[in-house]
Amino acid sequence: MTYTEEVGEKLNGILEKTFDAEKGFTKAAENIENVALKNYFRAKSQERNAFGNELKTEIKLFNQDIDKGGSIAGSAHRAWMDIKALFALDDEESMLEEAIRGEKTAVKEYEEVLQETTLPSSTKFLLKAQKNKIENGLYNIKSLEDIK
């Protein structure tokens, strides 16, 4: 596997989970009554959509194919947010906790990719920026935890 293929594979892994998270946040926004949480989940969904577009652009820069999903074996695919669990939960507090858990997992995965290889500077910059936005979201979510 060439260096650019390796980078492409890692970015595709993050891309797939980014779109999973986008779907999860959209579903959460549709299934929650609390206006502040609904707005939070909606904003996170839009953020993930933007992340996905940025990642696709970065992948294309290296002339790598964008996985259309399903390329990662189901058992190996660790979703950041357990969407099934999210909707088995009937209370907003539990949904928020699952979203927080998923965001923390996403941050760890970004950190792994950032450490693992000598990434091109544009890729490193993009991943750091996205990771920082997720971390800022985690910091801001603390104010939502008081809503019960």
Model description:
This protein is mainly α and 148 residues long. It is 75% helix and 0% strand. It is built from five helices and no strands. The chain has helices at residues 3-30, 35-61, 83-88, 92-116, 121-145. The longest helix is centred in the first third of the chain and has 28 residues, at 3-30.
Helical percent range?
A: over 70%
Q: What overall geometry do the principal axes of the alpha carbons give?
A: elongated
In percent terms, what proportion of residues is strand? under 5%
Number of strands: 0
Largest sheet: none
The rounded Rg comes to 16 Å
Mean pLDDT: 80
**SS class:** mainly alpha
Number of separate helices? 5
The rounded distance between the terminal residues' Cα atoms is: 50 Å
Order of helices and strands: HHHHH
Segments where pLDDT lies below 50 for 5+ residues?
70-78
Short description:
The chain contains 5 helices and no strands. The protein has 148 residues and is mainly α.
Write the layout of secondary structure elements.
Layout: H1 3-30, H2 35-61, H3 83-88, H4 92-116, H5 121-145
Notable features of this structure?
148 residues, mainly alpha, single chain, elongated, 5 helices
